[in-house]
Specification:
globular, 349 residues, 17 strands, seven-stranded mixed β-sheet, 11 helices, six-stranded parallel β-sheet, binds zinc ion
Length: 349
């Protein structure tokens, strides 16, 4: 089969790989949709091996990209409980492999494995940008019948990550949330927070992305290059600041504004990967009783809960995808995604 590989310095190649066969406890999926996630850009842009080192993973052999896999089970290995996987089942993948037995792995958080995450699919293990993908049966999450494979792909990282952050903040319907960055994760957060009943203030430096945020349920949009974002958020919230704020931009400036624009006793959450932030600790945090939360993706349980919420509320997650590509178009697909002006892309197989 052919699989997309990031070779570094904004180069992608379609390379040949052997079709996978499942070992004990494993399954093979036929991939139907494989999403493009913002964090892919780190690996796409960096010099060979650099981004992996920065994220704390040992640079390994070349792997098939894509960590938003969604498809159908086509082969089941030995010792797989039929309740975990059966041929023909429509599934998403919780895209990590840990030891499978430690306290974090056994509660569905294999990315937090005490032995260190063994594989992150699409980064240190073969991911979804190919016809077939092998993974442990205990990392599968059933895709509700009402959802398309594209929606399942989005939930498998970007949209699920937005859900995980909103749950970490216990966002409630009567609250106002300010969401910094309206890329795929931020826009998903806008869509989900709005569906939860919250009032959403969406921020981005791109007018196109702000227009999309409006269409996805944002009540107010703010371009921080045009106004003082913190003052604007306070003005929209009776001078108090938002109940919850979320940074999905990874910008140091937005992170500072994210903390400063949350109200006293409020919760600020960081979900964008990489980079640094600086804060004036006393006025920005201590003297206002601010809770600062770091949120990394979600558990298998959270992924299932997110999918069921989306199915039950009829949320149109497929609208996140602005481009649909074949594997052969990988080069064009990542060039466009790299420009950060478009929405989210997905490979359909
Ligand atoms: Zn573990
Ligand atoms: Zn991702």
């Amino acid at each position: 089969m052919k699989g997309i590989v990031f070779t570094g310095n904004r180069q992608v190649e379609l390379r040949n790989f052997e079709d996978p066969t499942p070992g004990p406890g494993e399954v093979v999926l036929e991939i139907k949709a494989s999403g493009m996630c913002g964090s892919d850009l780190k690996f796409y842009r960096s010099a060979p091996g650099e981004a992996m080192k920065a994220l704390g993973f040992a640079p390994g052999t070349e792997v098939i990209a894509g960590h938003e896999p969604c498809g159908v089970v086509v082969a089941v290995g030995a010792n797989v409980n039929p309740k975990q996987a059966r041929i023909g089942q429509r599934v998403m993948v919780h895209h990590y492999r840990g030891c499978g037995a430690c306290p974090h792995c056994s509660t569905g958080w294999q990315q937090l494995c005490v032995e260190g995450v063994a594989e992150v699919y699409g980064v240190t293990g073969h991911g979804g940008h190919a016809r077939y993908m092998k993974c442990p049966a205990n990392t599968l999450v059933t895709l509700p019948d009402a959802l398309t494979f594209e929606t399942g792909a989005a939930i498998s990282c970007g949209t699920g990550t937005a859900w995980g952050a909103l749950k970490r903040m216990d966002l409630a319907g009567e609250q106002t949330i300010a969401i910094f960055g309206q890329g795929p994760v931020g826009l998903s957060a806008t869509q989900l927070a709005s569906a939860l009943g919250a009032r959403v203030i969406a921020l981005d430096v791109s007018p196109q992305r702000l227009a999309r945020a409006k269409a996805f349920g944002a009540d107010v949009v703010i371009n921080p290059t045009e106004v003082d974002a913190v003052a604007a958020i306070r003005e929209l919230t009776h001078g108090l600041g938002a109940h919850a704020t979320l940074d999905a931009s990874s910008s140091a400036e937005a992170r500072r504004q994210c903390v400063q624009s949350v109200r006293t006793w409020g919760k600020a959450c960081l979900v964008g990967e990489g980079g640094q932030m600086t804060m004036d600790v006393s006025p920005d945090m201590l003297r206002r009783q601010v809770t600062l939360i770091g949120s990394w993706t979600f558990s298998t349980v959270g992924q299932k809960e997110c999918a069921e919420f989306i199915a039950d509320r009829g949320i149109e997650v497929d609208r996140l995808f602005t481009e649909r590509w074949s594997l052969e178009q990988a080069d064009e697909a990542y060039q466009l995604f790299d420009s950060q002006t478009s929405g989210k892309g997905v490979f359909l197989l």
